[in-house]
Design brief:
This protein folds into three domains: 44-150, Immunoglobulin-like (Sandwich), CATH 2.60.40; 153-276; 280-467, no CATH class. The chain contains four helices and 42 strands. By secondary structure, the protein is mainly beta. It starts with a helix and ends in a 15-residue tail after the last strand. The protein has an 18-stranded parallel sheet that branches. The chain is elongated.
Length: 467
């Protein structure tokens, strides 16, 4: 059958029209690579090696931010005035993470990474012998440029003054001692890296300065190892501020010093103070330690606004005295343990601990206006270290919520005087239910005292807990 010319011409126009329509629509649509719908960008910059003309061989990497501990974030939000606000700067260690993208610098220090998905990254530049520098939480919505600066690593020498600049690394590969005539100056943003099982003795002067430049880090040089300790003697007026100390088998030890520590973080790193009267520890976070803060032979101590998080023991004292207030003890095996010590314990929160507070062996404690919640044993009178002197306890006007085993637990047969535990709120109006959560001579005839819970409160103590 023969088609007429008019039909063929109409068909031709129809096909041409549709072809141009497809081209036009295709040219106007947004694709993954188009400028209006491009989800990837180029990140570039330059790294300068201090004092060098050849800036090549620096590895530059992008890392996704680490997830922050949700329990700590909750505590930070609920009580912003205590402890330290955790962030990428406090939690991120690129050595334990896998980079999203990486490149190396040219001789002029320039570098570029294409095809980076828009988002937030930690940017790290590092080179052997130079350490590393990190730009935290960089929001990269568009093409971005980062200029970074590295300094050569330092080592401890016999110089009278050793100063570590911001972003510079001090490496301590072996046991070292700073003598009494030497001064070590650490600027904000500097990093001290310790070799495995290394001890640094500081008999001279330690100065931490310029905290606005960032935290100062004490960390392990090798990721899978621990350094041992920093031993500091005869420090009088120096304030330790914005220090992050991690992964030590022992930690920071002070002797015969007035210790002042604030706005700092200690992870898997104990603090021990011997003979340190008038010492103060305020606004620190200490977590995952065996013996968070330990005092021995110290008087007139001030411990306040700290977070003790997931330690075997949070605060341990021996033959010491002072006050503890406005601090949060969360998921420790033992929150506080006193031995032959005299303390006022006021306005603290004890949550999720196996033992919230243990008053033991010759100690005298006044425990009032605290909040105990979700602990196995909230308050215990016990024995530690084989010392059997009876402790004296006064436990008044505290709130006890959701205790798993016992609100009050007596575990010392040498206590012969009844324990003043009046005016507390036990989350119940039933004396029978309250007594079920108290362990004393009424439950064990080998014991010789009871908790006096007369005048217990029927209402929550409104000014108990952190204020």
């Amino acid at each position: 059958m023969k088609l007429n010319n008019r039909f063929l011409f109409s068909l031709f126009l129809f096909l041409i029209f549709n072809l141009f329509s497809l081209i036009f629509l295709g040219g106007c649509s947004k694709s993954g690579n188009g400028p209006d719908n491009d989800n990837t960008v180029t990140v570039s910059g330059k790294v300068t090696l201090e004092g060098e003309s050849d800036h090549s061989g620096v590895t530059v990497s992008l890392y996704k931010p680490v997830e922050l501990d949700t329990a700590l974030v909750r505590i930070n939000q609920q009580y912003p005035g205590i402890g330290v606000q955790i962030s990428q700067e406090t939690e991120f260690d690129h050595r334990t993470q896998t980079p999203v993208a990486t490149t190396t610098t040219a001789s002029d220090g320039s570098w570029s990474i294409d095809g980076v998905a828009k988002g937030t990254y930690n940017v790290v530049a590092e080179k052997e012998g130079w350490g590393w520098v990190t730009e935290y939480e960089q929001n990269i919505p568009n093409n971005s440029t980062y200029n970074l600066h590295l300094f050569p690593e330092q080592f401890i020498t016999n110089d009278q003054t050793i100063e570590v600049l911001p972003s510079q690394h001090l490496v301590v590969p072996n046991n070292m001692t700073l003598n009494q005539t030497q001064t070590l100056i650490l600027n904000g943003g500097s990093v001290v890296r310790f070799g495995p099982n290394v001890t640094l003795n500081i008999d001279g002067e330690l100065k931490l300065q310029n905290p606005t430049d960032g935290y100062i880090f004490f960390i392990n040089d090798e990721v899978d190892s621990k350094w041992r300790e920093v031993k500091i003697s005869n420090q009088i007026n120096e304030i330790i501020k914005k220090l992050i100390s991690k992964n030590a088998s022992e930690g920071i030890k002070y002797f015969d010093s007035i210790v002042q520590i604030t706005n700092s973080i200690f992870v898997d790193c104990n603090i021990n103070v011997s003979r340190g009267n008038f010492s103060s520890i305020k606004n620190i976070l200490i977590k995952n330690t065996t013996r968070g803060i330990g005092y021995s032979g110290c008087d007139s101590l001030s411990i306040e606004k700290n977070i003790f998080f997931s330690n075997e023991k949070g605060l341990v004292t021996s033959e010491s005295s002072g006050e503890l207030k406005n601090s949060y003890f969360y998921r420790n095996e033992v929150g506080v343990e006193l031995e032959v010590s005299n303390f006022e314990i006021k306005n603290n929160n004890f949550e999720g601990n196996i033992i919230g507070f243990n008053n033991s062996s010759g100690s005298e404690s006044m425990v009032f206006l605290n909040e105990f919640k979700n602990n196995d044993h909230a308050f215990q009178v016990g024995i530690v270290g084989g010392r059997f002197e009876p402790p004296i306890s006064t436990v008044n006007q505290n709130n006890f919520f959701n205790t798993n085993n016992f609100h009050l637990y007596l575990d010392n047969i040498n206590v012969i005087q009844d324990i003043d535990a009046q005016s507390n709120f036990f989350d119940s109006s039933s004396i029978q239910l309250i007594q079920q959560k108290i362990y004393d001579m009424n439950d064990n005839t080998n014991l010789k005292a009871v908790f006096d819970i007369s005048n217990f409160s029927l209402n929550k103590i409104v000014n108990a807990g952190i204020q």
